[in-house]
Amino acid sequence: MKILVTGGAGFIGSNFIHYITKQHADWKVINLDKLTYAGNLENLKGFKESPSYRFIKGDITDRVQVDSLLRDGVDIVINFAAESHVDRSIQDSSPFIDTNIKGTQVLLEGIRKNQVKKYVQVSTDEVYGSLEIGKSAENASLLPNSPYAASKTSADLLCRAYWKTYGLPVMITRCSNNYGPFQFPEKLIPLVITNALEGKDIPVYGDGMNVREWIYVEDHCRALECVILKGSPGEIYNVGSNIEKTNLDIVRFILKELDKSESLIKYVTDRPGHDRRYALDASKIERELGWKAAISFKEGMKKTVQWYIDNKDWWQRIKSGEYTGYYDRMYVGR
Ligand code: NAD
Ligand code: TYD
């Protein structure tokens, strides 16, 4: 089996490559990644020498490059490549439109012209928008509120159209907020852990009572494997944990774990259009594919905090700008 992983140098993509190569030693993995500020080959140290792994620096919006890769023969394409941070999308939505929408269209066109057995679009619960009560099932209304969420929703709709119109073997997964090793320290959990370790302020937007459903990244990777192996073309699968936490719950858990004072918490101006709550009904993937999140919040968070303690070099180089050569201070150390 030959699998093309796009965006494999990012947080979830690199965790997926670690996971899938352990589960399927005979699979060949091609990782196509543009290496934006969020892409980091340090996440895949050790793979360089592996004969079943190949890294290609490239852009999913590059039709020629995508075509030539697919022409070589690929069985599965899984698309993680994206601009993924809501706050950045509020600053400038252009790269979100290019990569998340145009890039998905280029991949779908490439698949239309070349034989690929399965295409998985890695999407998000943010396409459903904010929920006061209840949970979003796969047929809920799509009400994205941020430019990031709107770009992911647009990509989902293109995937659906390519399945309906051309019969492409497209499957969409919509997962809740992930956390775990290798997450770029602009997102809430790694930002809080690393700022707390450095004794810096912890910026909490608004009243800190926004709710997210948190899933440990390996549970998500296992769900993606399940969809690749057992999912049906044209289907959408929500991937959730049922673990709902307010942002303040998260911050307090981490500060307690690190034995740091809550005086580090600084309430800052709220994010414009800030979604209050996301919550998924993931019963379809549980019922139809037999997947269920397995890692408890406490276990996942303890592992994650420990990973950032043990891998200070990794995040300190990112935060100082040494590794990527680019780091937008707007998002760290406020
Ligand atoms: P990330 O920002 O950590 O990684 C994105 C990766 O894509 C980086 O390696 C980057 O270099 C690469 N990339 C960006 N533009 C590219 C392009 N034009 N061509 C090729 N590569 C490109 O993101 P993540 O958190 O790992 O998210 C991965 C996917 O999962 C995204 O599609 C995101 O929407 C989705 N998702 C994320 C979460 C979450 O909580 N992080 C939850 C649900 C869904
Ligand atoms: P984030 O990790 O950016 O994920 P998303 O917005 O895609 O859910 O943010 C998670 C929550 O944490 C969200 O409600 C915004 C909030 N947040 C803060 O309060 N402070 C911060 O510095 C960041 C980055 C996020």
Brief account:
The protein has 334 residues and is an alpha/beta fold.
Describe the structure.
This protein folds into two domains: 2-178 and 215-239, Rossmann fold, CATH 3.40.50.720; 179-212 and 244-274 and 295-320, UDP-galactose 4-epimerase, domain 1 (Alpha-Beta Complex), CATH 3.90.25. The protein is built from eleven helices and twelve strands. The chain has 334 residues and is α/β, with parallel strands linked by helices. The strands form three sheets. It has a seven-stranded parallel beta sheet with strand order 3-2-1-4-5-6-10, with helices on both faces. Strands 7-9-11 form a three-stranded mixed beta sheet. 40% of the residues lie in helices and 17% in strands. The site of nicotinamide-adenine-dinucleotide has 30 residues, from α1, β2, α4, β5 and β7. Residues 86, 177, 187-188, 191, 203-205, 210, 212, 247, 271 line the site of thymidine-5'-diphosphate (TYD).
What is the element layout, followed by pairings?
Layout: E1 2-6, H1 11-23, E2 28-33, E3 53-57, H2 63-71, E4 76-79, H3 86-91, H4 94-113, E5 118-124, H5 147-166, E6 170-175, E7 177-179, H6 188-197, E8 202-205, E9 211-216, H7 217-230, E10 236-239, E11 244-246, H8 247-257, E12 265-268, H9 283-289, H10 297-310, H11 312-320
Parallel strand pairs: 1-2, 1-4, 2-3, 4-5, 5-6, 6-10, 7-9, 8-12
Antiparallel strand pairs: 9-11
Helix pairs in contact: 1-7, 2-4, 4-5, 6-8
The protein binds nicotinamide-adenine-dinucleotide and thymidine-5'-diphosphate (TYD).
